[in-house]
């Protein structure tokens, strides 16, 4: 009996391939339609912008600098671009942008710490930050435990170094310092003079302040008002001599 050959059903295979192509095209068209509808809907827009941690910059200033606005495309907002733009503001140290779908942009701001204040010619005070920048106090209020810088030139390089030194010293160690003025001499160009609320006068340098602050607090806590010198050697001399029974003036040197 001759072998019977079954013909290949080419037409059926062609129909199946055509059906698959049509299905894929329909799915792609459906996806495109959904994308178009989504990007035209309010779900794809920025609906709320939140700022926290800002003291020296107003909401309006932050919006203007960042370029953010309600109604912007949510997926068009670049967290890195916003962070970079806001860090151009002198008072801002760090920025973290948190995008919360749908439509919420939260911007967390960390500002440089206030280390001192500076009295202006019109009698107003400006806050001096850890990076040496000066900002208006406004409604943020004044921290009474911070010193006031007087007689400093705006371009004095030691002023920036002083602010950096103050930022690295615990606040309770500088709380008694009321005023800091420059007092340079040839041998110590960064020499400063400080006055305390407890009536002490202190002479030291910007470069030595961080390492000498512990001695300063030791004298403030145990001695009567006097002159404290913290240079190559540390010394203390009271303004009003405290005479003991043997008539010797009290004087401490470290």
Automatic annotation (TrEMBL):
UniProt key word Cell cycle: yes
Domain of life: Bacteria
Protein's UniProt keywords contain Cell cycle: yes
Pfam families, A to Z: POTRA_1
Keywords: Cell cycle, Cell division, Cell membrane, Membrane, Transmembrane, Transmembrane helix
Membrane topology: Single-pass type II membrane protein
Compartmental location: Cell membrane; Membrane
GO biological processes: cell division
Range of residues in the leader sequence: none
Gene3D superfamilies (alphabetical): 3.40.50.10960, membrane protein fhac
Ranges for domain POTRA: 44-112
UniProt record similarity statement: Belongs to the FtsQ/DivIB family. DivIB subfamily.
The protein's role, per its UniProt record: Cell division protein that may be involved in stabilizing or promoting the assembly of the division complex.
Record-linked PANTHER family: CELL DIVISION PROTEIN DIVIB, CELL DIVISION PROTEIN FTSQ
UniProt protein name: Cell division protein DivIB
Organism expressing this protein natively: Paenibacillus brasilensis
